[in-house]
């Protein structure tokens, strides 16, 4: 029925609470519950990753390189189905890579939280939601998994429920994203009304022969807005800088690293596959949104005092780069967008994880109070430096490549707005150095110790350090030899042939 | 058939507009929760209305709506649970008082 | 050629940089390892020199990026081999010098690791066969520069200078990146060898714009006007870093880029004019700024900018002779400026100040340093028979020869100023009375033997390399029967100019700073115009102030813009609705419904 990957994750998501409950009852120590549930999460995600790799090998052997599993034995165009193509595989791979290290990190990180079972259950469910949304072959399955992901995220943001901050952030996140998701559902219902099906391939097939009507346009706008809330398009981003700092650092890494990217993925999927740009002309509008998103994110990040809030705003800016690559609609630009999803997941995930360790050590999020801590804890400071250098696009780290591809893609579009867009993006990159280097790097690593930092004497936690270094290593290796990821990206870039293959694989020859 | 479908579409768009307006203007968290519920209903009603368009009544839409109601229930639970905590921390249910996180 | 030398000459230092942290438990081990690695790399690089004279140069390539179809490769031609030799050779000498220079600093792991990374990056930059690869190493060396300038990060000035260098060069790099993108899109390749042919079809306007954008990267990296503000501040780093990165190699990357892309863009006369005038203006402005600076390293930094300006001018002349002159001057400058920086480093290391007012009369204290510094200074001032005389003379000669009289006049004026500030520096540092500061110093610890070896090697280089013009010519153009056609009378004019420059520059310097018959302060205060001029020069033509006010403006804007995030849910929801309405309007206007 379901594919192995989602199956595994679901089974683990169900068994973790059971195991956690048993541990709690059988052993008096809290540590065992935390370690058992944490390890189960790790194994679950690891197994899913293994199955994903098997799926990758399997896909390479298929003629159209798309694997379809129908959920109902009804004639294809109306049925829900799961499909795995390289676009989905790529995003799922990114999500699983990051969540693997986040799970490893969390085993040690959640020590001070009272309910590790709930934490790991929600984390697994969130990963399941992401993978399901990515593999969904029809819009409603997409919506269901999307809600699964969002719901877990709301609760994870509110995980430190004894603080007002987490509650306020989670509340805003919930209301905004729920409204956004339901707006998207409304848009989906409009699509359903026009095409009579929810299967993505079926929708594409029907829309090909349908003229542009106001209803379809409204559906497009609602879908862009709906998924854009999670995908943090400015001005829909306002939940993000509140939610990221309030969440536990590992969850900030997940949220910023992959949840908002899933929003970006859905927009890429919907805009390139479903809404043909030659009919709907959304290119200029996405360009406009992308420029606003990146500029606002960078300017807001420039003067933040809270290091996690700063990184949250920079995520908004990075999403702007992804949308910019999408708006160019050239092969290179789209490849850059997709690659940037990977790079941002690794880079920002690493930044949040590393900063999370430092915050846990020093007990504050204020940048001035954290001054010099990266110098004191060199084993965290070095990966953090790698992360921020990758995020501001410094070769030979991986973030550089996606930036280069997006710029080349924009120039390839060969129209004045896109070249101006490329200039604005480069201006933004320079602006982002203003806070990445002058604030995060300089204050956290180069500046002298603050009184708070001087008092810190604890040692660095081992598992957390390992996961941080593993991500740093990935960034460096992919940066030096990007071919390993680009080979998949190349197969994932949505082109017209790929869309035709997609329809053919799901609908069959009919 | 024609009239029923169109009436439902009009009703659903009205519901949508009402709930969005409520989300902007209402201050009480419970009212915000109700507004979200109305938003779900608007989308659901749309599905029901469109299921009636062809010669047959499409069963898929009904399946979808049932699932969607469940999801709506989850969201409602979440927001109400948070409302309890909001009251604990802020001693109020006014959403405009929740502005300690800003800038 | 040693096996795989074009690859190994830069891979060895890069791998070495990664290994250094593993050896950090013993200082001696790190030092010995770094020196061995650097000299091995130099051996590999120098072993490539005989390859130039072979009929066909081997080029190796490996597929690397599947999307842009870029093949990672090395380019073997006189230009790259020459630059690789300079980078590894001076790199090895600087690392050898560092053993004594950095002997007391606890951050030795970081230092040697970054130095090796830099040597590898710089060699990789010049060996890169395509623009993307070049860009990568371009940034790697920029990063090393940033971290090494901020090496003494306990001082706020050093921290700030390092990051300033990073961000200012990144502005130039942004321009380079978009130029690269334009080049790739319009020709479909980024390979240097293919590009030269591929650009023939494209539109001249586009070619010019692309060329200017690519040159923007060189402006940032080589500290040319208007992006020079980072280089004077970069002197906060250790002197070895200044010698290697900010005098001999990295700042030359811009010249290398201009020379490397010369076959691509030389069809555009606008590009050539732009390059040469940027160079000449920088040369002039930097030289004037060097006249008033009190800090010995800043004087050297300004003079570096000025000399690079000469090289740019030579590239912009647009002939092969011009390219040759620029490379010849590059070699001379790399040697004499590294020498000057290392010699200055000896003094700074020993007496602990960089302010020239606090020096004076040091020639008796450091006789050997004085002699080597003197050779370097004579070279910089263009006094025969040292190498600077030949190479700078050749540049001025070429400008006259090709009829660029404006450039020639500006360059000659710059030559006069160069003589003036060189001797001002020399007199203030080594001659005259010892300052109060020096007198008070309890003991001056003398530079170690490992510091003298590089000085002597470089001093010998200063004397010899000037006479190797014909050998160098043969090296740069091994297969073409290429000769410099210089009329006899031009040669005479050039010698006259050089001689006059020396006299006109030396006399005021002698009077003001050696004899001290006239006080420089008096001249400055004599009228409001001279005072204003002095302030203008002291503040670097206010470029720095301008950039700072720009950045403060952005910062203040960001501060007030933050208020837009009210954090009230109703406003956030309102934004969603507003966005929906805006999107509907946009789609109706632009979507073509």
Structure description:
The complex is a heterotrimer of chains A (510), B (103) and C (593). Chain A is an all-alpha fold and 510 residues long. Chain A is built from 22 helices and two strands. Chain A has a two-stranded antiparallel ribbon with strand order 1-2. In chain A, helix 2 (30-61) packs parallel to helix 4, helix 3 (86-109) runs antiparallel to helix 10 (249-274) and helix 5 (139-157) packs antiparallel against helix 6 (164-195). The longest helix of chain A has 32 residues, at 30-61. Chain B is mainly α and 103 residues long. Chain B has one domain (2-97): Helix Hairpins. In chain B, helix 1 (2-25) packs antiparallel against helix 2 (29-51) and helix 2 packs antiparallel against helix 3 (59-90). Chain B is elongated and about 55 Å long. Chain B starts with a helix and ends in a 13-residue tail after the last helix. The model of chain B has no long low-confidence stretch (mean pLDDT 88). With 593 residues, chain C is mostly helical. Chain C folds into two domains: 5-438 and 446-538, no CATH class; 540-590, no CATH class. A two-stranded antiparallel sheet of chain C has the order 1-2. Chains in contact: A-B, A-C, B-C. Chains A and C meet through helix 6, helix 8, helix 12, helix 14 and helix 17 of A and strand 1, helix 5, helix 6, helix 25 and helix 26 of C.
